[in-house]
């Protein structure tokens, strides 16, 4: 019986710690987006409704927090591949993920100035994220090709390049709206050709 109580307490403690970590990441993303890299970490802790000690226990430095915010966004994007594939038809899963990718790119643009402050530059933070994003797109396109919804000569990177390109040349704050329309155009253009 003692072991069960201890296990329950440990599980609750881990669960609380995970929730605190997630709240800190959400609060930090919002704070960095609004105020840049010099945002007070004490303010982040207050916004997350945790103590400063809790924040520093999870993220001992500002750089660690900045990196974690970015990696969290990449993890959400990578995890969405499986979630969408499990509950949507292949082409709809691809479309939903591409729309989420636009949101990711918009968030990344807002947080890039903060990422540029990380010791060693943003390349260290970006390390590995491209592979995870490419793997997610490859999986979704492969599934849509196998279902016959997408032509088999499509290079998944072409879709990513188109979306990244739109975000890189974005000159207006409402570029994501145009990029969302582009998703439907890209999907339509990726359909098998009728003979």
* Helical segment count: 9
Structural class of the helix and strand makeup?
A: mainly alpha
Distance between the termini: 70 Å
Radius of gyration: 20 Å
Strand content: under 5%
Please write the CATH class name of the largest domain: Mainly Alpha
How many structural units, i.e. domains?
2
Q: Globular, elongated, flat, extended or rod-shaped: what is the shape?
A: globular
Number of strands: 0
Task: Write out the CATH superfamily name of the largest domain.
Answer: Tetracycline Repressor, domain 2
What name does CATH use for the topology of the largest domain?
A: Tetracycline Repressor, domain 2
Question: Main sheet, how many strands, which sense, barrel?
Answer: none
**CATH architecture assignment of the largest domain:** Orthogonal Bundle
How does this model look, in words?
With 195 residues, the protein is an all-alpha fold. The chain folds into 2 domains: 17-60, Orthogonal Bundle (Arc Repressor Mutant, subunit A), CATH 1.10.10; 62-195, Tetracycline Repressor, domain 2, CATH 1.10.357.10. It has helices spanning 2-35, 41-48, 52-58, 62-87, 90-115, 122-126, 129-147, 156-168, 175-190. The protein is globular, with a radius of gyration of 20 Å. It starts with a helix and ends in a 5-residue tail after the last helix.
């Amino acid at each position: 019986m003692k072991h069960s109580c201890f296990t329950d307490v440990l599980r609750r403690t881990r669960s609380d710690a995970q929730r605190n970590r997630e709240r800190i990441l959400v609060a930090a993303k919002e704070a960095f987006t609004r105020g840049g890299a010099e945002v007070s970490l004490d303010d982040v802790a207050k916004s997350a409704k945790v103590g400063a000690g809790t924040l520093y226990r999870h993220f001992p430095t500002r750089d660690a927090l900045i990196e974690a915010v970015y990696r969290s966004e990449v993890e959400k994007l990578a995890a969405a591949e499986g979630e969408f594939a499990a509950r949507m038809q292949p082409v709809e899963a691809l479309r939903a993920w591409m729309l989420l990718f636009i949101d990711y790119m918009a968030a990344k643009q807002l947080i890039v100035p903060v990422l540029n402050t990380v010791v060693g530059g943003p390349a260290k933070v970006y390390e590995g994220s491209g592979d995870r994003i490419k793997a997610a797109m490859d999986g979704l396109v492969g599934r849509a090709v196998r279902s016959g919804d997408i032509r088999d000569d499509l290079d998944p990177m072409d879709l990513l390049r188109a979306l990244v390109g739109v975000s890189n040349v974005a000159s207006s704050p409402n570029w994501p709206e145009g990029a969302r329309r582009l998703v439907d155009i890209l999907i339509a253009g990726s359909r098998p050709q009728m003979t």
